[in-house]
Structures are given as C-alpha cells and as structure tokens.
Amino acid sequence: MKKTQTKAFANLICSLLLLIFEVWAYVETTGFRVHKRAFVQPATFPQIMICGMFIFTVILFLQSLLKVTRGMKPEDPDNELSPSINPFTHRGVAAAMFVVVLCVLYTYLFDKLGYVLDSACISIIIMYLIGKRDLKVIIPISIIVPLIMWFVFYKLLTVNIPMGVLQPLRELVDKL
Predict the structure, then answer these.
(1) What gap in Å lies between CA 116 and CA 172, rounded to an integer?
(2) Are the C-beta atoms of residues 43 and 32 closer than 8 Å to each other?
(3) How far does CA 100 lie from the centroid of its chain?
(4) Alpha helices, DSSP H only, in 30-157?
(5) What tens digit of pLDDT does each residue of 2-30 get?
(6) Cβ atoms within 10 Å of 10's Cβ, excluding its own
(7) pTM given for the model
(8) CA dist 24 → 29, 107, 131 (Å)
(9) Residue pLDDT, tens place only, 51-89
(10) Can you name the residues that pair with 170 across neighbouring β-strands?
C-alpha cells in the first residue's frame, strides 16, 4: 500500500488544512472591537480556543509527518487504509458537509432573520435530520427554546442579540 493511502497521510493533510484555518481564524479575531474598561475582551476566548487547537494540531502534524517520512510498523493503526471521504459513496461525509453548509447559512442569515427565527429554522432541519418526525413536537420546541434563550440573554444577562424581522417582539419586551 502506498504511503499516500494511509491514515497517517490523511492526518498530515488534515492537520495542514486545520493549521491554515486556525491561523486565519486567529487573524480574524484581531479585528474584534476592543473595550477600554474591560479586562476580558471579545477576542479573548476565541483566541484561547484557537491557541489550544493550534497546539494539538501541531502535535498531530508532527506525529503524522514522522510516521509518513520514517515509515510505520505494519500493526500501527495509522498504517491502515484511509477511509474514503467521497460524499457520493459515504453517507456520513455527505451529512457532515450538509451540516457545515447549514452552519454557514445560519451565520449568513443571523442578522437578517434574527436569532430566534434563524435558530428555529435550523433546529427544525436538524431535528428532522436526526430522525425526529413528529411536527407537533419539533415546531413548538424549535420556537420556544430559542425564545427562552433570547429572553435569558437579553433581559437577564443584557446581551444584545439581533432580532431581525422580530424586532417588534424586542420592543414589546422592553415595554414590560
């Protein structure tokens, strides 16, 4: 079997892609707004998480690089044939890619539709995907949970979350 068909080589390629993504994500966080009187800035938590991911990705990269360049023992699990990530032949990969598309769509529609409506729509889709088919349960839960979460963050924690087309709901809650 070729080295390029092993799990070690697949880990090497994935770690390189992750490193590129992590560097990009860290650079993006440097553009976050800075609050003068706040000790913890909006970029602090994402930067800590990205640094942690970066450390583990570098470890994966180095391990994979050593295994690919120096060779592996036949009984090494990373010496096995790498599974296919072709979405046309592997249903789990296709589902994962669909969820990634949903996440991108969620972030794109967040300001336009607002948190509650956007979260309700995505929740309905995800519940359907995981096998929940009872609309009498899916729809109320998908609407009530984001509403409660919004209320907790907006009223109790004073976090301003976009409401999009449901802006009149925020104004109604402000009057209470």
Answers:
(1) 15
(2) yes
(3) 7
(4) 44-70, 91-113, 115-129, 135-151
(5) 878 888 888 999 999 999 999 999 999 99
(6) 17
(7) 0.57
(8) 9, 17, 35
(9) 999 999 999 999 999 988 888 887 888 878 877 766 677
(10) none
